[in-house]
Design a protein that fits this description.
9 helices; five-stranded antiparallel β-sheet; alpha+beta; 283 residues; three-stranded antiparallel β-sheet; single chain
């Protein structure tokens, strides 16, 4: 197997595809979008790049891939999009690929990349019925132990610091429960979700005014008939333009399609996020 690789380098002379052999032991990891380390030229250090295609034969490959990283960075669709962007904007494909990488992961040196944040999570090892039986039979007596175990019925797999705070228990209590075989504490990745703790009440569509309804129906017609159109919604602040956007996006989502919203000012982002979470967030 051979791989076509784009080097993670902004030099115009390197804005081309290079063929590398995929060693047998790495074939299971090789896929379009995989990040690799490869020897290049006379350099002693390895260059990093991305596989953009796989093939069975090559006339040009004279070196092999040294390493394929386990973490997925970019998928096949984004590789194809990067090629189109590079062609349209006359830039290197690698520059376009970098735009699609997670922030902090573009560096060649793994040690310089932002790492996934990890922490300890708490999991129940016994069923709710078994724990309640042990409580009833007085084998579990401590109020703190009982409170913790019952809290985990609906919060299994919770981050340990959150459990200590919300259940009002100390680390020593958790270590005792772990020692007795009631819970397990395992390391895992902490999801960096800025919206996870936002407590926003669910919103329902507002009743449209006659003017709003006319505007909404006009654009909805093109969406439902799969016709492309440019539309400008004009109205003063507070006239209800956002409600029309929300209705149109809901129409698109109901057709199992997607929508992109661009916010013109960074200062408007928080209130727009709240509006969209209130309407579309799934509880």
């Amino acid at each position: 197997m051979f791989a076509e690789v784009i080097l993670n380098n902004n030099a115009k002379a390197l804005n081309k595809i290079f063929d590398y052999e995929v060693p047998k032991e790495l074939e299971s990891k090789a896929h379009i979008g995989a990040r690799v380390y490869v020897p290049f030229g006379r350099a002693k250090s390895l260059e990093d790049g991305f596989i953009v295609n796989l093939k069975e034969t090559s006339e040009y490959a004279n070196k092999g891939i040294a390493q394929i990283q386990d973490q997925d960075f970019i998928d096949k669709e984004k590789i194809e999009l990067s090629k189109l962007m590079a062609k349209k904007y006359f830039c290197n494909i690698s520059e376009c690929i970098k735009l699609m990488l997670q922030p902090g992961t573009s560096s060649k040196d793994i040690d310089d990349r932002i790492k996934e944040k990890t922490g300890n999570f708490v999991f129940l090892l016994k069923s709710q019925e078994e724990i309640e039986y042990l409580i009833d039979s007085k084998k579990i007596k401590s109020d703190k132990h009982i409170r913790t175990l019952r809290f985990l019925y609906k919060n299994d797999g919770i981050y340990i610091s959150d459990l200590e705070l919300l259940a009002d228990v100390s680390h020593s209590v958790l270590k005792t429960l772990e020692k007795n075989g009631y819970i397990e504490i395992k390391e895992g990745i902490i999801q960096r979700n800025p919206f996870i703790n936002k407590n926003i009440e669910k919103d329902s569509p507002k009743i449209l005014t006659d003017e709003q309804q006319l505007c909404f129906d006009g654009i909805k017609y093109f969406i439902e008939n799969n016709q492309f159109s440019n539309n400008l919604i004009y109205g003063v602040t507070g006239s209800g333009k956002t409600e029309i956007y929300l209705r149109l996006i809901e129409t698109v989502l109901n057709l199992e399609k997607t929508a992109i919203v661009l916010v013109p000012e960074i200062s408007l982002t928080p209130q727009m996020v709240d509006r969209f979470l209130a309407r579309f967030r799934r509880k």
